[in-house]
Amino acid sequence: MVALPRLPRFRLACPYCYEIFPEWQIEFRCSGRAAPDGKRCEPTPDALRENRFGTTGDQLHTFRDARHRYRSVCPESGAQTTTRVCPRCHSELPVLFGQIRSQLIALVGARDSGKTVFMTVFMHEFGHRLGDRLDAAIPGADDETRNSFSRDYETRLYEGHELPTPTRPVSSERQGHRPPMVFRFKRRNRSRFAGRTRQTLLSFFDTAGEDLITKASTELNGRYLEAADAVILILDPLQMAGGRRLAAREALQQATRLEDDPYSVLQRITEMLQAGHRDGPVRKPLAVVFTKLDALWHEFPEASPLNRPEPKSAGCDEVDSMDVHHHVQSLLHDWDGRQIDQYLRLNYRRYRYFGVSALGAIPTPDRRVSGVIAPYRVTDPILWLLCKAHMVPTIRRR
Amino acid sequence: MTTSGKQEQGAQRLDRAAAAVSEDASCVGPWRVDRLCAEAGPGVTAADTRRALERHGVRVADLPGLPARPPGAIAAHPEFAELLTRLGRKLSAELVFGSGLRRGFRVLKGLRLEDGRRLDREVIEEAREQTPTGAWHADWSRVLSILANAAQERGELDAIALWEVVAVLRSLARLGYSQRALTVQAVGLSLEHGEAEVLAAAVAEEREMLEPRDVAAPTETEAPVRAVDRSAAPAQGTEPEPPADDRPVPAEPPQPVLDIQVRTIRSRTDIVQLSWSPPAAGVVSLRMAAEPPTWDAGTIIGIGDADSYGRPLSAAGVPGPDRRMTCELAMPSARAFVTPMTFREEEAAVGRYVEVTKGAPVRGLSARRFGEEVRLTWDWPDEAVAVHVAWQPSGAPDDESVPSAGRQQRTCSRRAYDANGGFAAVMGYAAQRVGVWAVFPGPDGEVVTGPTETEVPAGGIPVNYDVQRVPGFGGLLDLVRRKRRRKLLVHATRRCVLPDLIVVESRHPGIPLGPNGGVPVARIAGRPMDPGTSVEVVVELGEKGPSWLACFVDPARPAAARGRVTLNPPPYARLQVK
Lengths: 398, 578
What we know:
The complex is a heterodimer of chains A (398) and B (578). Chain A is α/β, with parallel strands linked by helices.
């Protein structure tokens, strides 16, 4: 059977800058190899990248070739290249970008709510446990992700037992180039077309807590949030008056800050998501994740879904997920967060509550973890989002 | 007292003071010498003091003046220190020389590396060309750019290097680090040892000068109690000085050390760190033996008995930031026990002993129950290749050789432990006694340590309940009459005594989490239940929905009558009644 050529896509989102562009605008970067006649291009400063990310060093030049999608020939040197770059930020696009789906996931939340720890532990769990469960792999899609995830996040937490330093605001990152982490999720299809695989690019943009406070970074975040396919909102129950009342004393190491109140954070995020849209509920799936459950475990009844073993099914366990959702919804009332629930019901079409403990224990006052990292339910939110994107199946038991 | 007697007493006092100084410092400056001289009393000269200090291995040196404020080149950039912190560096020269700095450097006469290189504009420009790309690129470039600007002014780079070293030591001194500990930290920065000693002494003296204290003879409560090897420093050397009026002080018995702790140091498998709180009275000596002492902790014994137990350790303790004494000890190859003995006059108090062999049992064992599953975590011993985990219902015979129906054992590898975030196993709802044994490679095969045990409390006997529509004709009638009724089924999975139950209805958005979360609509009387049997109750609900229905153990009943059951709800969606 002859495969028909795929039509170009009109709307693609760069997993690094979250800008939208049609497929035919994708540019190529010269490979720098010598052409058959010996000519080769030399790196020069890339004004576009420097303007967006600050100094990034010299790069080989880019060019557009509307006739070719996946490989081209440099018009200056004549060397072949397969390196495709985003027309807006000149970041090198992952292999298969445009051919497979992309899921841009924005990770937002207040300062010290545990966003970076959550993402690091999720990725570690995926590599060690969830991957087996789903028969899936989730390698980094570019060198920066592969190297920085291992060096800056995983090794530091799992071997150094140190919590990550607070994430820097986007505005200061413009000069420091903190790109989103891009992973390629690949899973073997178990249903009708056994043997085939499903793939998607997962781009996680980890905002700093300050990004949700300062006006300067609101615009940049607004762009990320607008292009994101799904949002993970990380909330810290210890920033809520009721949560603090019930929490273990050793977990209350830092004072509450008015601007980090989960309700205020939710309102700011919602306003960013609704800006420039017609009035109506937000359609993007929103996973509302309450972290640091380890500080509140002693309060949960024995039969609570947050005291159950984690589901071990090869997908998103819908019944378990709904039980957790309802349970957290009720806990919100105990934590003096009733208005969060009301606000979500009025402003979001698809949202779900999750309760997680990324570390499994309360860290020490000097931001260290004693003992092994023993996460609990940390994969639930992303599994739900992957399920909404039809990348993993929904399991309905009982 | 005669003049010669007073001089002799002064000399003794000086000797004791010099011994005390030597425990904390390896180098002092003239200010400390003068102070010791004054404290020793009349008739003791500065030369005597210097000799006494040198006799105790303390070098007297001219200490450098420390910078009071940062050099202008970095004072103009308040973000400089924060940039370094973000880059995980203590010294900006690390960005220039990289690992070259680790081979050693000096700062007192300008920054100079062991290989002779100096910090100048040329090397900074070279480093700027090699600035790594990635997340920290901007911070890195910024620091180098500030250094490059500073290089335009003669001596400014050297001043920055000195300031950075001093700033690190000052911050540690503020935390209470002793002078020896400061020297160790300075050497840790790769500073040449001699300069590390001198700078640590200067910072410690500066700190002492900022906190002036009465130079009168110390009182009993101020007595400096040091952990020393008695063979190296006699106990009387650290005894509190007698009051000036020679009145006899009632002898306080030695206080045992009961909180000694041993911990391994990450990435160092050849040493362990011991720490303890200094006792209120007496001098601590650590003694090591192949067997634990026969005396109980807290026993007061004679010096002769104490000396007959094991051998004294030459490791001297230094006070750490938490005011606990710490010392490092080479890991013994065979099983060994360390016991702190507190000596005072002719008596010794036996402290709590610790095991410091590679085969020490697992520490930090904790358990958490998730229904039938129990998750165990512990501090994985650095060199252990595996850990055996065994569990059996509490009350079962604990002899491993006796077969027990409920006893189960598994082996957990390091890889599995780290990957799975601990060890998890389905152990059932009964209370369990869990033991873990670390396995070390030994010369003749594996060496298994003694067990570390913990008790996992029982989970409640699971009793499930469900909510269903009223079946048959009655259900149809309900639809016609617009009645909201539901059938509640309670069934036990094991033989148990069902306590009194209360069924509540709630119209809040969230499911009720306790009996007070809604309006009671029914009560179910407690009764004995066999597995497979069930209790059915038809519950009539309020007129309007939707509402939540949930079942709880009646809190009005006394705690003893509530039994030990866990009421497991069905999927929450079924508890919502339209």
